[in-house]
TrEMBL record:
CDD domains on file: ENR_SDR
Originating gene: fabI
Recorded family membership: Belongs to the short-chain dehydrogenases/reductases (SDR) family. FabI subfamily.
Keywords on record: Fatty acid biosynthesis, Fatty acid metabolism, Lipid biosynthesis, Lipid metabolism, NAD, Oxidoreductase
Binding site for NAD(+): 14, 20-21, 41, 65-66, 93, 163, 192-196
Organism whose genome encodes this protein: Georhizobium profundi
Bilayer-crossing regions: none
Gene Ontology biological process terms from the UniProt entry: fatty acid biosynthetic process
Pathway(s) it belongs to: Lipid metabolism; fatty acid biosynthesis
Enzyme Commission number, as recorded: 1.3.1.9
Protein name: Enoyl-[acyl-carrier-protein] reductase [NADH]
Gene Ontology molecular functions: enoyl-[acyl-carrier-protein] reductase (NADH) activity
Length: 264
């Protein structure tokens, strides 16, 4: 139990349901004392997110589709009006056509490449610019990425390319806003069973492979990601920016599977 987020206000983007990584993060932030606002994408998600936001004592629930920049502007206009300033933002948004989350990366279409990049990468830059304008010293921005950015994961394809660009943008944004003492970081989560995760072909195989072969012999939960986000969004990490922090049971440090013949 901690109160390190007492007095801090932040925006959570990307809750689709109670399996969403953003929901795990929101729960941890609220338990540590933060005041939260939420966005949702479209009415169908809105219906699911409304009771979740209420459960965490939030009465700010705003529609936002990052493909429509005016809806992003409207979110920050409302926050300016209601709160004036902002302490943190969680960006847990990603999308690619599921028909291209299988087969060859080389078959990616130009349309889906652009769309994936705008939603999964550039939206973080657009959000960061608007959020930073409302932040004082100590502001913190966090996005979610995956190790498919630097290593080839079967079927992850264009999402891996978008995550590589997202991680690069974390570093550039960290440099942009560092002088204002606003920090920008990413959490690279291991596979989690979510709506977005289910869009990747053979996700179940990847999930159980990582559970068997990560140092901790398990996958991570949304609460594991939530706890780590507290560090990156609070003053505890006040000297940390531009980082990609792995929350993946250590899978990324491995170089070979746990083979029976090597089992101790
Ligand atoms: P999720 O489906 O619960 O969340 C994805 C969110 O993206 C949804 O809330 C959806 O509404 C939102 N979104 C998609 N297109 C949007 C748009 N145009 N405008 C606004 N919102 C939009 O799945 P999740 O796994 O919790 O995904 C959250 C983040 O975590 C994503 O960036 C994802 O790539 C990343 N991530 C997921 C995993 C995993 O295994 N699930 C692992 C590492 C990183």
């Amino acid at each position: 139990k901690t109160d390190i987020m007492n007095g801090k206000r932040g925006l959570i983007m990307g809750v689709a349901n109670n399996h969403s990584i953003a929901w795990g993060i929101a729960k941890a932030l609220r338990a540590a004392g933060a005041e939260l606002a939420f966005t949702y994408q479209g009415d169908a998600f809105g219906k699911r997110v409304k009771p979740l936001a209420a459960e965490l004592g939030s009465d700010i629930l705003l529609p936002c589709d990052v493909e429509q920049i005016e809806t992003v502007d409207a979110v920050f206009d409302t926050l300016k009006e209601k709160w004036g300033t902002l302490d943190f933002v969680v960006h847990a948004i990603g999308f690619s056509d599921r028909n291209e989350l299988k087969g060859l990366y080389a078959d990616t279409t130009r349309d889906n490449f652009s769309r994936t990049m705008v939603i999964s990468c550039f939206s973080f830059t657009e959000v960061a610019k608007r959020a930073a304008a409302m932040m004082n010293e100590g502001g913190s921005l966090l996005t979610l990425t995956y190790a498919g950015s630097t290593r080839v994961m079967p079927n992850y394809n264009v999402m891996g390319v978008a995550k590589a660009a997202l991680e690069a943008s974390v570093r550039y944004l960290a440099a942009d806003y560092g002088p204002k003492q606003i920090r920008v970081n990413a959490i690279s989560a291991g596979p989690v069973r979510t709506l977005a995760g289910a869009g990747i072909a053979d996700a179940r195989v990847m999930f159980s492979y990582q559970a068997r072969n990560s140092p901790m012999r398990r996958t991570v939960t949304i609460d594991d990601v939530g706890s780590s986000s507290l560090y990156l969004l609070s003053d505890m990490s006040r000297g940390v920016t531009g980082e990609v922090h792995f929350v993946d049971s250590g899978y990324h440090i491995t170089s070979m599977p746990v083979l029976d013949e090597l089992k101790r």
